[in-house]
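[stage:ingest] chain + small molecule (magnesium ion)
[stage:ingest] validated
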Amino acid sequence: MGRGQLILIEGLDRSGKSTQSAILAEKLGKSKLLKFPDRSTSVGKIINEYLTNSSFQLSDQTAHLLFSANRWELNNEIIELLNDGYFVILDRYIYSGIAYSLAKYEYSKTANNSGVIASTTASEQMGDVEWLYGPDKGLPKPDLTLFLTLDLVELGKRKGWGNERYELEEFQKIVKSSFLRILNHEEDETVELVDVSGKNIEEVTALIWEVVEEKKVNQTTERQIEKLS
Ligand code: Z5A
Ligand code: MG
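[stage:predict] done
[stage:export] tokens:
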């Protein structure tokens, strides 16, 4: 028996990541769904405080490293599950880690920055993609990454906006361009963009399943688990 495959669902806020990861996990059968940040772990509890309490202060570098540390907390579990034949579905992972930090760097230079989303002085590390990527090197590389992208106007209409630190429309625009800058979808054949604008939940599920079948990540494999390098 080969190992299960690692499938990542990334995307803009409210693009339907959690909805679609749960559906995909169900469709794949022997699977486990993991969400980042995982707010239940030791590091995850600090991240939760940071995201939900605007007066809780962390430097931008510290927040970045904590999100990565939170992924390392689950490193062994992910590898064990894959080797036990489980399909592991990730709801956000490294691309969110890099894109949000990069977006904070851009946002810190705008006139509206009050210090809640990003530090008021732009720190050079936050604009350095190599630095941002560094702490995640060595984590398992997804066999497939699906990036759910959405029209910014439609995004604004989705439910539940405005409760957490990064949920500001102006910031989300910068997040979208940061994701598109770092995804490397044109060269990396394991990364696919899925435009969900104007599509209902069932239609998005069908689009995702089409890619999953085409990339054969719904079958176990004999390939080694790749590491991010
Ligand atoms: N973050 C970071 O900075 N660094 C990191 O390394 C990581 C994360 C991993 C919390 O993330 C924050 O952490 C996030 C990035 C940062 N910042 N922000 N903002 P989170 O994952 O906990 O939370 P979220 O992504 O902001 O939101 P979300 O609620 O998880 O969104 P979603 O999962 O993409 O969407 P959803 O819950 O599936 O759907 C949202 C709503 O839209 C819901 O009412 C659905 O019923 C509806 N929906 C879903 N699909 C559709 C379609 N197709 N049509 C219409 N309506 C739909
Ligand atoms: Mg979600």
